[in-house]
Amino acid sequence: MARNNNNDNFMPPSPGESLVAETIVGHSVKIEGDLVSDGDIKVDGQVTGKVKTSQNLFIGPTAKIEADVEAGNATVAGKISGNMKVREVLAILQTGNVSGDIDCGKLAVEEGAFFSGKCVMNVHNGYKTKPVSEPLPDEE
Amino acid sequence: MYYYLVDPANYDGKNFEFFQTQLLSFLGEYHISGEVARVTRLRTVEDLVATALSHGVTTLVIVALSHGVTTLVIVGSDETFHKAVSVCHGKPVTLGFIPVRAQSETAKILGIEGLLESVITIAKRRVESLDLACVGQTYFISNLFFRTDQSPAGDGTAAEGKMAFQSESPRGFFSGLKTFFRPQKLDAVEIRFDRSFKASGDLFLGSIINASDHISQKDGVTIGDPKDGLLDIVLVGRLNRFQNWKWRKTAETRALETFPGASIVHAREVEILSPVGLQLFAGPIVVATAPTRIFLAEDKVRVIVGKSRTF
Q: What is the CATH number of domain B139-297?
């Protein structure tokens, strides 16, 4: 449902910063059903059902989501009730409110954010930490 | 072989005969002359296009000899072009367009300006395959528009096909004040996308865009690309009084993506479920009323485009 979009070097945007989003759910719109996209999604309204994208997801401060969420990267400044599965970086900003289990590669939680649920850091599908130093080769 | 379908219906100049003479002169000059058929009360656009494309017996004398048309050039208004596209879809023909009005949305989309430039564009023959959207029996390459504050409630099917668009905001200072103080009465709109999810809300304006007459970038995403295989749907919710007054002129230009809090969704199929009777406009013409389904056709349409096209 979307054009190509490169999500390399993802940096979570701050609430005031605009995100290059292909699908935008404005604050006056309520979505029911499976909101599935191959491109970036920005939600400022209400979503009930499911949100899925392989790219970036931005949940604005006015957003209310009662849905399971799957995304490549996600930034949460609004309210989510549901489980989140994020392949790479999940950032919960100061105004963010997440009630549900999260499964992500890398997690950033700002001071003041609300999170209630279990958290699993998935190293297989997502972000892999590099070892601090290379192991020395065995000396024969 | 070039076939020119001339429809003087919405010509905005003084002397159409002079316009047509000039046109024929330019066509000869650029070596793209062909058969010319003119729309009259007895010969409609649909009849002329259908007979021009047929290789068998024709019903009209003027197009009786028109066999093997490969390029059909519509000399007329946006309405004429829409009618021709509806008949031509799925047929192996390339469409061209020469506008007879100074303000033509289709001409802007295709990058055509003025008579001479149009003829030069036809002669250069840069052909693009564009997505073709369909609502009811009407096929279009441009966009549809609705606004809930001025559509009649109830069954509005009788208004289909009529010049019923009355949405121009009042001009002048006092009229602007009227807009400011007028309460916004909006209907709850329900739209289903790709049979997958449903959007609802008190919406003020909406646009279903295949191609747009203005190049628009919302947060870096181009809206209205008729080659991307998707319809772009832009929805604007309730505005406060100040916003309603401030953005009244933008509503006329239909650049809805610039409105604050606009929603943008991409889909191949859109169903407008409610309110019943909500009118959908293509230009000033009502082409459908809700509930209705708008979708991208399987076929694409081959159109001659100019350098300054919007996609």
A: 2.60.200.40
